[in-house]
Structures are given as C-alpha cells and as structure tokens.
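Hey,
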Amino acid sequence: MYEEYGADLCFVRGVCVHLPAGVSVCHWQERVKNAYEEKCVENEEMSRKHCAALLLQLEDDMDPVESYMKPGGYQQFKEHLNNLLQLYRNKPAKGVKAEEALDNYLSEKNRLGKIILTTDETMSEQQRHLKEQRAQLEEEKQRAAAAREQQMALVIRTNDIERARQENERQLMEKMEMDREEFQRNNQQLRMQLVRLAERPTRIIERIETHERIVERTTCVVS
C-alpha cells in the first residue's frame, strides 16, 4: 500500500504523494490509515441508512399490518414480503451493508410474522368454529322447518278428517231424519189401512142385520 521513495515522497496505491514538512512516513501512513477507516465507517453508515430507507420505501407498497391480522393473512404477508425482498435485491448501489440491513429488517419482520401467524391461526380456528356453528344452526333451522311442515300437514289432515267426520255425521243425521219421517208416513198409512180393515166387518154385520130385518118384515106382511 505504501512505498517510501524519499524524505518527503512516498507512493500510496501507486500514487506519488508529497509529505508535509516535518511529517514522517510512518506518521503519514497512520493518518492515511485512520482516514481510510473513517471513510469506510462513513460508507458503511451511509450504506446502512440508505438500505434502511430503501426497505422502508419498498414497505410502503405493502398493506398495513392490521390488514394481515385475519384468516389467511400470514400467507399474504409472506407473499408481499417476498415481493419486497425481490425488489430490494434488484436495486443497485446499496453499498457494503446491504445484506446486514436486510438481515436486521428480516429479523424484525420475522417477529412480526410470528404475531401475524398466531393471529391467523387463532382467527382461522375461530372462523372454522363459527362456520361449524352456522352449519349446525342451519341444520337445526332445516329440522325445525321440516317439523313445522309435518305439524302443519298433521293439522291439515286432522282438520280434513274432522270435517269429513262432521259431514258424515250430518249426512247420517239427515238420512236418519228422512228415514224417521218416511217411517212415520208409512206408519200413518198402515194405521189408516188397519182402521179401514177394522171398520169393514162392522159394516158387513150392519148390512146383514139390515137385510135380516127386511126379510123379517117381509115375512110378517105375507103372513
């Protein structure tokens, strides 16, 4: 790196450098070394800040954190994070601390990812349980509706049977009344016939007696 050439000259990386008066080569080499190290530190810090800012800029295209706090949110978070990493790696001129900045960023995002994963699993389980409850409730509703339909059908059938019974009873009562009236008419006619039959011998006897009286009178006259 350094080549001593003369009392006030030296070569630094192939460049001839005039040393200030009263400055030795060793002292100058130390100053150059320190300046180089300071520049390296400065470059590293600039790279670190630049990469951190770049990652934050790329992160703006990701959804807000709360949007991942849902069932399936962890997979979505990983996809968006992978897209961010791809964009980051494709960016040029990131400096010497590009990977270190990325490692620090991913370390933070991994902690966030664990929170999102826990939330995702918890909410997915809740969603599954809720879905089962809804399915069970729907099944109970269907059973209740079927029971109501059966009950309604039974009521309708019972009402139909009752109406049929009442109609049969009405028709039977009407027929009984008609039969009773017909029986009364027939009975009246029979009684009248019996009366006429009962009166006929009396008239015959009366005719015979009348005839006998006539004959008797005639006999008396002749004598």
